[in-house]
Specification:
The protein has 5 helices and 4 strands; from the N terminus they run αβαββαααβ. With 150 residues, it is of the alpha/beta class. The chain has a 4-stranded mixed sheet with strand order 3-2-1-4, with helices on both faces. Helix 2 links the parallel strand 1 and strand 2. The radius of gyration is 14 Å and the shape is globular.
């Protein structure tokens, strides 16, 4: 029997991931979400963009949301940012984070790799979208899960 998306990370690991999201958002107005599902239909970036919209992530005031998408059975992942981010960051902005995640995942360090990626996203976002006292948390910090199909 295979592990479902909801059970891929233990309860304590899920808490660690949510804590990483909350910590990453402390110094930036940017918003970070993590979505986990079993399979990825089609191209991973297309699926991540679909989930991004499905989660309403394009509705932030500064269009500065970031989605880290994982398809565990297909062993695919993507990091995508909204257009407010893409307008101001240099090309290849996500490459180092993606590369580091891949290395952690290859060592089966999934929680560590994901948490480090979330931390790196926060560090990078604060350069372009620093926290201001009037900032509010516009998106849920909870992990979202896709259907348990496949």
């Amino acid at each position: 029997m295979s592990v479902s998306a909801k059970d891929f990370f233990s309860s304590s690991e899920q808490k660690e991931i949510i804590s990483a999201i909350q910590n990453a958002e402390l110094d930036t107005s940017g918003e970070v979400r993590v979505h986990i599902e079993n399979i990825c239909k089609g191209e991973v970036l297309d699926r991540a963009a679909f989930v991004f919209k499905q989660l309403g992530m394009e509705k932030t005031d500064l269009r500065n949301g970031v989605l880290i998408y994982l398809a565990i059975k297909h062993r695919k992942f993507a990091i995508i940012g909204d257009k407010g981010i893409n307008l101001v960051v240099p090309g290849g902005f996500w490459d180092a984070i993606h590369r580091d995640m891949l290395e952690s995942f290859r060592r089966n360090e999934f929680c560590t790799g994901l948490c480090k990626a979330i931390e790196a996203v926060g560090e990078n976002l604060k350069k372009y979208f620093p926290y201001k006292k009037e900032d509010v948390n516009e998106l849920s910090d909870d992990i979202s899960f896709g259907e348990d199909r496949g």
